[in-house]
Amino acid sequence: MNIYAIRAIYKFEMARMWRTLMQSIAAPVISTSLYFVVFGSAIGSRMGDIDGISYGAFIIPGLVMLSLLMQSISNASFGIYMPKFSGTIYEVLSAPVSYVEVVIGYVGAAATKSVLLGVIILITARLFVPYEVVHPFWMFAFLVLTAITFSLFGFIIGIWADGFEKLQIVPLMIVTPLVFLGGTFYSIDMLPEIWQTITLLNPVVYLISGFRWAFYGVSDVHVGISVGMTLFFLIACMASVWWIFKTGYRLRS
Amino acid sequence: MQPDISIQQVSKIYSGGFRALNNINLDIQRGEIFALLGPNGAGKTTLISIICGIVNLSEGRVLAAGHDIIDDYRAARETIGLVPQELNTDAFETVWDTVSFSRGLFGKPPAPRHIEKVLKDLSLWDKRKSRILALSGGMKRRVMIAKALSHEPRILFLDEPTAGVDVELRRDMWEMVRKLRENGVTIILTTHYIEEAEEMADRIGVIRDGEIILVEEKTRLMAKLGKKELRLHLQVPLEKVPHALAAEPVVLSEDGYELIYTFDAQNEQAGVARLLRKMADEGIDFKDLQTRESSLEDIFVGLVHENKP
């Protein structure tokens, strides 16, 4: 194991975060705060409880998930796309590192940032809405697992993308709709039956549901299924990364 | 002695079917400076990229310091430093950070002393806290070299190191390359500037259309293929080469004022004297004379265009 290489990549990527503090931490915190102000405090006070949870508290897990997914994907995809774009990738390709080490460095740093961000948003949320966490360990486990999974997913997008537009497409055009329709703002029970069935095809439903279970002990689908789906997606991403490095897809001609 | 780089029957066929390299065989010895010459698109960069692990090879195998670059890529790559042709640098990092990053990436523990030495050798010490985007092109080039030297490689690839570089930096770079060689580093450089190869290289390889067409020690190559030329500026123009000189390889310039005599740099020592004697006998006076040895450039141009389909 080339520990020094992992450390070098990790440090490099974390330094990038400190340089872009506004973009990587402040911006998501502000936008999430706006949701809490509008939907939590202003509108939420006029909404009834869902599953016995106040509306402001109900939307917290979904909103944290939203930031977590968006930031994991954009951090990791940028992290690997930029060296490709600027050409500095030559150094990583010519270094005595295995792809596992490269992935640990880049994805590890992206996931660390996302977890940090998630924690900061949770603390911010506490300023607007009172809430308790029933299963803190599982809450944190979900946070970390999701951050890692979607950072890996972002890493794959970063390798696949051959322009800045493609980097933006997935978070904006796919992830955002899936999160909004995945039960961030409502319980799936509230939908007509046909839509409940369709919604179950949305992978984000399982993430949000499991995360909400860790907070309040209630969920739309069984928490075991949530964990299973997340792990399934994680393994699918790992397999893709393995394939990418084996074939040199978009990295080595 | 085991060669430091051993390229064995290497071919590269790109996915479009383009054959960039065709059955390359080449050994490079420890501690030598090897210059790879060739026109644009001949395959120089592809060959270097394969050895360094940036491009996959299609056929054959390569050993670096005795290690197979695929089966034993860690050991092979640890020994190699690469200065690529393009100025691919980070923008926002400081010089110190980016050079330290490279060292870590190549699996070496931090060594501020070594980094300091590299930066000082390359006149980058004053700029160590500058961000790379604030540096000039020449300085960026120095940073690229510092990165390649950060992990103390024993084999160094310089791909067009002095393209677009000013005279001072070029001199510095030549100096640095010589120092590295004194320390036992094997250096492979590609270049367009033939004077660079002429100045520095021990051996020269010429690559054309993905094939190595020649590998030779520089001095031998220049002796073997080099021509000497003697130009005699005449007092009075001639209309044609005089009969007495017809046996000699002499031509007359168009205006008739110059006799040009070409001879092998090695073989013919008596030729010039004989020619001059004959001219004196004929009463042909000259007011000035000039000799010129063909440069590596002439040899190179000759080789590359020779037998070209």
Summarize the structure in words.
The complex is a heterodimer of chains A (253) and B (309). Chain A has 11 helices and no strands. Chain A is mainly alpha-helical. Chain A has one domain (3-41, 55-247). With 309 residues, chain B is an alpha/beta fold. Helix content of chain B is 33%, strand content 28%. Chain B has 10 helices and 14 strands. In chain B, helix 3 (95-105) packs parallel to helix 5. The interface between A and B is medium-sized, with 26 and 36 residues.
Salient structural properties:
heterodimer, A: mainly alpha, 0% strand, globular, B: 309 residues, alpha/beta, Rossmann fold, Alpha-Beta Plaits, 2 domains, 4-stranded antiparallel beta sheet, 33% helix, elongated
How are the elements arranged and paired?
The complex is a heterodimer of chains A (253) and B (309).
Chain A: H1 3-19, H2 21-43, H3 55-58, H4 60-86, H5 89-94, H6 99-128, H7 136-160, H8 164-184, H9 193-199, H10 203-216, H11 223-247
Helix pairs in contact in A: 1-2, 1-6, 2-4, 2-6, 4-6, 4-7, 4-8, 4-10, 6-7, 7-10, 7-11, 8-10, 10-11
Chain B: E1 5-13, E2 19-28, E3 33-37, H1 44-52, E4 59-64, E5 67-68, H2 73-78, E6 80-83, H3 95-105, H4 112-121, H5 137-149, E7 155-159, H6 167-182, E8 186-191, H7 194-200, E9 203-208, E10 211-217, H8 218-225, E11 227-234, E12 250-252, E13 258-264, H9 271-282, E14 286-293, H10 296-305
Parallel strand pairs in B: 3-8, 3-9, 6-7, 7-8
Antiparallel strand pairs in B: 1-2, 1-4, 4-5, 9-10, 11-13, 11-14, 12-13
